[in-house]
Structures are given as C-alpha cells and as structure tokens.
Fold Acyl-CoA synthetase.
Amino acid sequence: MYQDLGRNQANYTPLSPLSFLRKAATVHPQRLAVVHGERRLNWAQVQARCRRLASALQRMGVAEGDTVAALLPNTPAMIELHFAPAMLGAVLNALNTRLDAETLAFMLDHGEAKVVFVDREFSPVMKRALALCRQAPQVIDVDDAAIEEGEFLGEIEYEALLETGDPTFAYGLPGDEWNAIALNYTSGTTGDPKGVVYHHRGAYLNAVANIIDWGMPPHPVYLWTLPMFHCNGWCFPWTMAAVAGTQVCLRRFDRKQVLELMRTHGVTHYCGAPVVHAALAAAPEELKQGLAGVKGQVAGAAPPAAVLEEMERMGVEITHVYGLTEVYGPASICQPKPEWAQLPIDERAELNSRQGVACLLQEDMQVLDPDTLQPVPWDGASVGEIMFRGNITMKGYLKNPRATDAAFSGGWFRTGDLAVVYADGNVKIRDRSKDVIISGGENISSLEVEDVLCRHPSVLAAAVVARPDPKWGETPCAFVELKDELDLSPDAALAHCRQNLAGFKVPKRFVFGPLPRTATGKVQKFALRDAARALTDAE
C-alpha cells in the first residue's frame, strides 16, 4: 500500500544544528547572540562569521570528514567553531584546556586533526604538544583581547583568517544526519582517552531536548559557566541558536564575576558541576544580591541540602541532570513534582538528588541486571546498571571497535553506574561498579557516604574510597575538602556520620584537604585509593 511513498526533498530533511543557525539569522537577525566583555554580536553577524570561517577552512584544504581541533576557552570563536566546520561536513574536536601536552598530542594524532585553533593563553602547552605530534596540524592563533600573554604559534590570526572567507558562503545540511559532527575525548584516567563521536542527528535532538526538558523560553540569556569543551557544552551552543538566545561568554569560572554577569545581563540559565554551585552558594552575602528567576543545571552529585537551600534563597532554581560523554552530556533529568515544594528542605534535597528519568528525546534509560539485561524491581533497593538506548547516544569510539562493541553489548549503552529505581520510576545512582566498598561482606555505597558528608555545613566536597582492613577486608576512608575559612575535626566528622549512617558505613579514617581532580573536574578516585592504601594506622 505504501511502496510508492518514498523520501524526497519535500518530505525529508536530515536533522542538523545547522538548521538552527540559519533560522536564528533569518528570523532574528538583529537579536543579541553573543556577549564577550565589551563585544556584541547579533545572530546575522554570527552566521556571516561562521560562513567566512567555513569558506576560509575550505581554502585551507579542510573537507568532509576532516577533524578541526580547538584549544579555546568559552569565547566567540568557540561558539562559531560549533557551526563552521559542520558547514563543510568536517568534525569539531574541542580540546580540554586543562590537559597536559602529552595528552593533547595523543588526541591531535588520534583524531588526525588537520587544523587546530589555539588561544594565546594555552600556547605554551600547545607548543609542547605540537612538538610531540607525529604530524602536527596547521595552527590558527586566536588573539582574545582579554589575554595579553602567550605567543603566536601559527601563520595567521583568527580574525585575519575570517577576512579571507566569504560571508555569503553557501552551505547545506549533511547528506546523512548520521555523519559525524563532533569528536570528544573521555578523561582517560585509566589509560589513553577514548574518542567519542557525535552525529548531526544526536546533536540536533539533544539541543532540542535541552529546551523541552528544562522548559526554556524563547530568547533566554545563557551564561557559559560550563566549558564548551565538555561534551560540546552539553550541546548548548546549538540549543542557544535554536532559541535565538544570548550567550554570555566566560573565559574561566570566578564566582564574583559570575554573579556580576548574572545581574548585569539578566542571566536566566547556566550549567555547572556541583563545585560551581557550592562556590556560588558560599560567596559573601554582598555578592549574592539582586538575583531572581535564574535557573541552574547541575550534573553529577546533586547539591546537598544546605547548598540547595542557599541557592533558593538567592533566587536560583537548581535542576539535577545526569549523563556521560557518550550520551552527549545530560541524557536524563530529575523533574520535580509539584508536591515536593511543600516538603522540608532535607526531603526535597534527597528527592532532587535522583538522576530521574530519560530526557524526552532519548528513547530509554533503564536499570538492568548487567548479565541478564532484565529490569530490576522498582523497589528503591535492587541494584542494577544504568543503560541508555536512543538517538542521543554516540556513534561509537573512534578507531576502537573493541571498546565500542563492549559499550553497546546487548543493544544498550552500558554506563558502568550502579543504581536503583524507585516506585515512581526515578533512578538513583548508588555507585560506580568499581567504587562499591565491600566491608565484612556488606556492600557500602561510596556515594551515600559522600552525600552525608556534604550535608555538613563546613564541607565543600567529599570522596570516599575503600581502604584495606585486616579484619573487615576493606573499610570506608573519607577525603574531605572544606569550605574557605571553615574547620572540621575528625571527631566532629565522625559524629556527623554516626548520626546519619548505619555503623558499618561510617568511615574509619578522615583526611582533610583539596581533592585531586581530572582535567574535566572529576575527582580522581584512583589517586585517593592509592593514598588510602598508603595511610598508616599511626597517621
């Protein structure tokens, strides 16, 4: 009956974020798109600059399938690079600005970058990385007015390169929405980083999911507290084009500057790791005045009750999301129910700490038995592995079929995160499979202990790992980072944990000081395990 009804240009269009840019520039050409210091760009200017950049890259020899790398902070150039290479069918590899030269060289070689854009602030580390590359890419320098130090490594600067391009450069959508649009590398804490490949379809759908699931209105004002190198800024460069909003750039996180920018520009939305929200909540009172109607998104551990309460008092509403690089950043969201608003803050904080449910445009998120792939009971106690399935999932790992096959074994993307499901269908992470502590035959969730520690008003962050024990096999060892100018003794930490945890879950050791983190801000638990093993009973 339907055999003669095929696809054609009238009834089928490949999904791509490039559509968002065209519409923003056509429908809202004069609307403010980018703010960076004293600089202002509207959407017509952004599209023209992206066209110039695409044209210039094409003249340099960049073609479909080539990789264009960038070592940049959150500046206009980084926003434009989320569109210009895609106009050619090329792939953006946004490099983590906190990485060392050896890791950057590995990524440039592995991704076969043809061109790399480098902000002057990062020229020293990039210079060393280029010397280590088997075949160094061409370098384009980005001279941001906010930075004075750093040398030029290339033969041309970014703005001069744009001048060589055509502002009317004709671009179209990809021939196949499955084509790659971005390459992002995992943290690589246990070996070489894996290259996660995104496609146009997933980038498009996650950008739209951000709007729907967060209830974003037309033309919001988004502050770039989240690095754009992290899962392409959770796809928000493309989201902001879809809503023709305003993006306020921020080179690095500074809580005083963040709060000033929020007031000055009427920021409505921002995203960040838990430490970002904790830092804002702990800011001096005079810096936190004049905020209202700001919405923040947090990934990873949800803020403790004290932080959540302070953010609410400041006029900031926090939404908890969950995801990984392999699912374009956040792929699930904790959606508060109206009745939660009447609950005490501690109860609300616990409910908001859940990883929630799959985003609307991610087909499914389940907690499954990793061996049988059967769903665990919705009882809040039975533990399984979180798995995703749907369009907002990577193509796979670049040049790593073994890791790709393992990640997709059984027809699901396996996260390695262990969780339970409550009766209402909301998922709650209990731990990473490798982070469960087994003490005297009892399983202890390190996340549960960390959540309790973070509820103490003096604690900024906490990480709990296993420490070998001759009697129990292993016991919890807590590493605690305190807020500025606040103190907490081991005895006080012990008493706090005893009040809130079963006895076998209480850490036997407390170590105070800054937590070691990866270049993406994740706590390096492998380093803490080594430190815990090295502790003597006398310490």
